[in-house]
Design a protein that fits this description.
The structure holds two protein chains of two kinds.
Chain A lengths: L2 H34 L20 H11 L10 H17 L10 E3 L2 E3 L9 H11 L1 H10 L3 H31 L5 H9 L1 E2 L3 E2 L2 H4 L1 H14 L23 H26 L8 E6 L5 E6 L5 E3 L2 H27 L7 H29 L1
Antiparallel strand pairs in A: 1-2, 3-4, 5-6, 6-7
Chain B lengths: L9 E6 L11 E7 L2 E8 L7 H6 L7 H4 L7 H16 L5 H29 L4 H21 L8 E2 L2 E2 L7 H24 L2 H7 L7 H8 L2 H5 L7 H4 L20 H25 L20 E8 L4 E8 L5 E7 L2 H12 L6 H9 L10
Antiparallel strand pairs in B: 1-2, 2-3, 4-5, 6-7, 7-8
The chains are: A mainly alpha, B alpha+beta.
Chain lengths: 368, 372
Amino acid sequence: MNYTLLVLIKIIVLFAWLMIFALYATLAERKVSAVIQDRHGANRAKILGISSFGIFQPFADALKMLFKEDYIPPFTDKFMFKFAPVITFFFSALVIIAIPFGEPVKIGKEIIKLQVIDPDIALLLIFALSSMSIYGIILGGWSSNNKYSFLGGMRATSQIVSYEVALILSIIGLIMVYPSLRLSEIVNYQSTLLWGWIPKWGILLQPLAFIIFIIAAIAETKRAPFDLPESESEIIGFFLEYSGIRFGVYMLTDFVETIMLSLIITTLFFGGWNIPYLFSGLKLSNGTIFSGFVFPWGKQLAISINWVSILQIIAFQIKTVIVFVFLLLVRWTFPRLRFDQLMELGWKSLIPLALFNIVVTAIIIAIV
Amino acid sequence: MKEFKREDREVKLFVGPQHPGVTGNMSFEITLEGDTLTSVKTHVGYLHRAFEKLMERRLYIQNFPLVCRICVPESDTNEENYARALEELAGIEVPERAKWIRTLVLELSRLQMFIRWMGGIAGTMGLSTAPQWAIGDRDYILDLFEELTGGRIYHIYILPGGVRRDIPEGFEERVLKVMDYIEKKLPDYDDLIFENSVFKKRLIGLSKLDPAWVEEIGVTGPVARACGFPFDVRKEQPYEIYDKLDFDIITETGCDMYSMALVRRREIDLSINLIRQIIDKMPKGEVWTPLPNVLYWKIPAGETYVKTEATRGEFGYYVVTDGSDKPRRIHVRGVSTPHAYTLLERLVPGMNISDFSVTIVGLQTCPPEIER
């Protein structure tokens, strides 16, 4: 098949997947928070009298955002004001191109990788892209010509720049363990077994790196307890002057960033598409090619290769959703830190811990 | 090149009255240097109904719907205080049972105010779970009020000479049931708020005030008690039937925001305890000494000052009468006045902007009683 056409199809499918996930992420956030807070949550949006747990709510929200007045305050930098949400959204959504959603599948003679691009620097690429998105935030805060939103933009910048350091340092431990920076190879490596029975998932090989990574990454996505750039009870936030769909884009970006974070955590720490002990195309000792479960106690369960691919894709989605819901639970359980405490946590705790993790990893690698 | 002076680095910000971190009806003019506050100026007047002046041209009984608007969430303190001042001046004897019912209403009102405050302080710190719980649990107490008085927020239940009507049948059991429920929920609040590491990290040491200020400025209530001063009108000058109840004054020694929060948390336990005691010991009898025709009710000339312990501190009414059917002068001692003006101005310099709204809510200011 034509390579360009294939990439185009993948992009369209992925974008649709992302938008639907992001829309329903807003509903998930409302529902999860409702459960935590002893409420019912959104359940009033109806089509033909059917509301069924508010499944139409995201569309109602989106329509509302679209039809609101798009007000641009005077004395703003008009171009930057309009452009800033787009930058944030674009760069945070772009991360998805490097994420592998499943093992390469064979359709006819064609082997199709379930990711748009598979560069050998993918690990660096995703973090480079996601850190680009802060330009949109600082420009949005600055061009609004409002002191509150300016403060928000400044906070966002210093917070994200500080936590980027801890984030990347925690990744170095992973890079030392994994054989490649290519995400598909990272997942392949995690599919192998340690001592014949433990899956080599990142969370098991690098537990400390996982803790540092998840804290730093929540700070990167500006969600509570690190939502200082938008802390609505203090400075209202960098998108204070935005209204209508531009505000909607900022809100959606918040969820897109969280989804990206869930995808990255799943890929790096939870074995991506891997289901433990499920193999496809395993060469057995008698020369036959086997796909299915091979348990450590010797039992085998054969499954056709198509079903293996489908199971793996579903497993990836389920893992992502579980990580996403975990992030929501964190959001609704902790109050916000003060800014100096945030900086203290980043520079004085997370970065030394990440360095310690690197040293320990290096020693273990040298010994083993 | 232009040389920058210190003043050039300062930014002036107007916080409120439409700011989500402010309790409403009140705005602040703050000066920022970077992220740090250097000074604050309080502006009230967004609710200038001129309560005190308005009361001078109304009949005594007509003032009851007005006084409960001075601090909306805790209206009973105002009603009780005003009614008690009139009783003192007119020489009306209140039946024993009415006093017990009044105390019950006051304690219920205090309890709902503290529960609401627990939600408020967590809400300003970005934890919106606690406000949702708190508002939900407070509703059970408001339901009790609705059953007892007919109103949820504005009760107009306490009148000179007693209370408007006796408590309904089976009301005591329902109160006890709600108390049991709230007591069951409190450990959850402890886990979520008072034991939360981030909450402690932010509140310990925040807005630490000098104990000398307490007497200098006239700070009362939980703020003073957090500094170790045993100021509690309920114990110092027992009004209604507080002298017949068994309780101790709650004090903490930290003198910071966390101690204030702990004082309020322990006050919740105390209120539940007091409500149980009241229901246990409540006598039978009349609840109202009939007044003369209230439209022509004249009170002999005199003046008095009565005070109560509101949730925020000492709350007082100074009433002067001249023998006519309208009060000559009424002055309300709002608790929030020293808190939101002088104390806030002293606390603010050097504070991070993040802590500003926490401080306002933590001092539990109620704007209408400043601008009365």
